[in-house]
Amino acid sequence: MTANITILKRAEEEANTLLEKAMLLSEAHSQGDNSALISALDENLQLWVEIETSLHNAKNFLPNNIKENLMKLSKFVERLTLSKGVGVTKADVECLVNINMQICRGLLESVHHTMAEEEAFSLLKCAIDLSNARESKNEAELVTALDNNMNLWVYIKTLANAKNSILPEETRGNLVKLADYVSAKTLEVGKDMNNVNAKAIDSMIMTNLQISEGLMSFEAA
Questions:
Q1: How far is CA 97 from the centre of its chain?
Q2: DSSP state of 221
Q3: What distance in Å separates the CA atoms of residue 17 and residue 47, rounded to the nearest whole number?
Q4: Are 99 and 26 in contact (CB under 8 A)?
Q5: Residue 63, CA atoms < 13 Å, CB-side half-sphere
Q6: What is the mean pLDDT of residues 205-221?
């Protein structure tokens, strides 16, 4: 989970940086400040070199088709910047700005879909673990399954509460309420492990399955 949060934060930072460089390019060109324009072009080029480098990283989570498109865009930005330098036209600058803004949006959407898919499988796995532990009547397995499920929902609640979350406000609110519900049910079950509340566990399992299905539907949309 910590690794997923790190990936999400890194993608959001890259998106913000892309927007920042786009604004610097636009402002420098509109003001006719060659010194500022050279600096903005250089910073934007360095950013795309960093993006290209990250695409070669084996741990990069982006789908191959997106990696390939980003690689082509990186080469395009490099050629345009190095060939024209301060002589870039208004159309050239607008092109560079649009590239940054479009990739920023695409990057966040891609990350969100990837995270949705991962969380859907995590929810499904926790539901299965809870079901197996309940059926086996193994207290140790049940405690582990409950703990893992609780940690997952704490993580989901953290994402839902994030100020820069791109989820609709209603969806975020519902996820927070569900996380609190799961927490309450987990504590309820944990109070008496000798007489496990099967209905509470079934309720948590169904919650996981329903949200997992919803996330997968969103991923396929």
A1: 23
A2: -
A3: 8
A4: no
A5: 13
A6: 76
Average pLDDT for residues 19-45, to the nearest whole number?
91
Class of domain 2-110 (CATH, top level): mainly alpha
User: How much of the chain exceeds pLDDT 70, in percent?
Assistant: 84
Under the banding of pLDDT at 50, 70 and 90, the label for residue 42 is: very high
Q: Which tens digits make up the pLDDT trace of 76-133?
A: 999 999 998 888 898 999 999 999 988 887 776 666 666 677 788 889 999 999 999 8
Identity (one letter) of the amino acid at 135? E
Q: Which phi and psi angles does 57 have, rounded to 5°?
A: -70, 130
Spatial neighbors of 116 by CB under 8 A, at least 6 apart, are 215, 216, 218, 219
Q: Which residue has the tokens 């993580």?
A: 155
Q: Where in the chain is the domain with CATH 1.20.120.340?
A: 2-110
For residue 57, give the amino acid letter.
N
pLDDT, tens digit, 9 for 90 and up, residues 134-150: 888 888 999 999 999 99
E strand residue ranges, the chain:
none
Return the structure tokens found at 157. Answer: 């609640």
Pairwise CA distance, residues 211 & 221, whole Å: 15
Instruction: Please tell me the distance from the alpha carbon of residue 179 to that of residue 170, in angstroms, as a whole number.
Output: 14
Count Cβ atoms below 10 Å from residue 40 Cβ, excluding itself.
22
Q: How far apart are CA 94 and CA 23, in angstroms?
A: 11
CATH topology of domain 112-220: Four Helix Bundle (Hemerythrin (Met), subunit A) (1.20.120)
- The answer to whether the beta carbons of residues 204 and 149 sit under 8 Å apart is yes
